[in-house]
Design goal:
Elements: E1 6-12, E2 17-22, E3 28-31, H1 42-63, H2 70-76
């Protein structure tokens, strides 16, 4: 499986997510996998990132243009964040 060109735009350690942009696509937020308290690295990371790219380009990416009710979710967007205490 070939490794696509990608960038990690941001990493949120408090909930183990990362915004990742594959070349030619918009950035998306991904839940990062972890096992026994460890994030994937090396070949495991490369396999995971290539898998995410395949999922994105083979299914979701092709279906984005067919979604017709996005305005329902857009109407719920409220960018104001409630106060919170970061987890440690």
């Amino acid at each position: 499986m070939s490794i696509p060109n990608y960038r990690i735009i941001s990493f949120d350690q408090s909930n183990m997510t990362a915004v990742i942009q594959f070349e030619g696509t918009e950035p998306l937020n991904y839940d990062l996998p972890f096992v026994d308290g460890l994030l994937p690295t090396g070949d495991t990371w490369n396999f995971w990132i290539a898998s995410q790219y395949q999922i994105m380009t083979n299914s979701r990416w092709n279906e984005f243009s067919t979604v017709t009710n996005a305005s329902v979710i857009e109407a719920m967007v409220n960018p104001e964040v409630w106060p919170y205490t970061p987890r440690t």
